[in-house]
Amino acid sequence: MSETAQATAGTAQAPDSNRWKALTFIALAQLMVVLDATIVNIALPSAQQDLGISDGNRQWVITAYALAFGGLLLFGGRIADIWGRKRTFVTGLIGFAGASALGGAATNEAMLLGSRALQGAFGALLAPAALSLLAVMFTDSKERAKAFGIYGAIAGGGGAVGLILGGFLTEYLDWRWTFFVNIPFAVVAAAGAYFVIREPAGRNRSPLDIPGVVLSTLGLVSLVYGFTRAESEGWSDSTTIGLFVASAVLLAAFVLVESKVKAPLLPLRVITERNRGGVYLSLGLAIIAMFGLFLFLTYYLQIVKGYSPVKTGFAFLPMIAGMITGSTQIGARLMNRLPARLLMGPGFLVAAAGMLLLTQMEIGSSYAALLLPAMLLLGLGMGTAFMPAMSLATLGVEPRDSGVASAMVNTSQQVGGAIGTALLNTIAASATTAYVKDHIAGATTQPQQQLVQLQAQVHGYTNAIWFAVGILVVAAGIAFTFINAGSPDATAAAAGSLEDTEDDVKVPVIAH
After folding, report:
1. Residue 26 to residue 36: CA distance in whole angstroms
2. Residue 112 to residues 38, 53, 58, 78, 507, Cα–Cα distance (Å)
3. Residue 504 burial by CB count (10 A; 0-12/13-18/19+): exposed, middle or buried?
4. Stated pTM of the model
5. What is the pLDDT of residue 160?
6. Which residue numbers in the chain have pLDDT < 50?
7. Who contacts 434 (Cβ-Cβ below 8 Å, separation ≥6)?
8. pLDDT tens digits, residue range 474-494?
9. b/e string for 464-482 if b means 16 or more Cβ within 10 A?
């Protein structure tokens, strides 16, 4: 037996307790990254006032993070493959903690924006490394189901947790604590990972594809920024259109380069495989719907219903409970018995049913009668769908490609989030403006005008939510159509057999 094979065998026999301890620290790190996407939103008004940030530049507190994170994910995934997942994971955590400390201590706008960009950059190292560690550490189908059930619940519910935590910290402490809170998360996760994680063999020794890095980073940054700008400046803005055109050209060039180079940043085999392609596409669409919904429900609860930030955060608890239940109790229990499409498709449809309830929202809608059941359905559906999606996205991938395959999951989520926020917000704003134009003439007093404004906002939210329902139905259709993998046991066995065959073919080529 070769040294590599012995190392792999030795790693595979690592005690179960170590793998589950490792999962604790990986989950903690993932929670930190996901909640950071929403925790700062609630603190933004306070930070803006404290640091004197203009309304025009306010969006950059969110955008700087999104651009760095979304643009560098594929690069971060490949770094994990080349440099080692554990080392990349720990480095990402330490860097994220440092960037968070810088943000919490910010004394001016530039310092805050720089810290957000650094958070995004280190997050792009951390997130793919976390998912790829799970993919290579949990290969037994039953263990994998449990591990990805926990991971899926965190990936889905972390944003809502961020709203609760952000509300508490902003209301009772200070906006700076929405940054400082990351430091203990990162330190504990990094220390635990360093001492507990035993990384299996399978590192990619190929040279880094520099043209691929440049083209993918610029293409993804242009795409994410295009949607972000469309939200504030409009879809017909010349710069917005230019960004979309540039993104299309850059990403097309990236695909061409990847098909030609010997050691591509993103091997096309990762995304052209039918099941993984279906997961990336359906997951991205589901995130479009979810991110828009988080935004509208936050506005509705705070502006229309008058909830405090803390109360708003707690209002999302049923959704978190639903996601945890769907992920760990439904998805994890059924993943080894049912094909992934029979969990993902129905999961997206259940979530669509929850959103369909929210199209009935009015100013005086009851939380208990309407929002509570809608959130439960949303959480259950998304949790059930996310769990097999996360597992299938990395199932059967060669260890040397696990980092970049994991990065594609995060990329589809990040790009989906940018599209969802911009697209659905634009639809809502247009519907709101049209409603005000049609009804404001009949409002002769100030209270009547205020009522029309509130009704217009709710009308805008419900119009956009209708689109979100349609997007989730399309995501379900893609899951049913594209994803044809059987049970994880059979899929893994087939993938292993295929990789063995590929290895046999490759040996003479490498020797030559």
Report:
1. 16
2. 16, 10, 11, 28, 51
3. exposed
4. 0.77
5. 66
6. 1-16, 488-512
7. none
8. 999 999 998 887 654 444 444
9. bbbbbbebbbbbbebbbeb
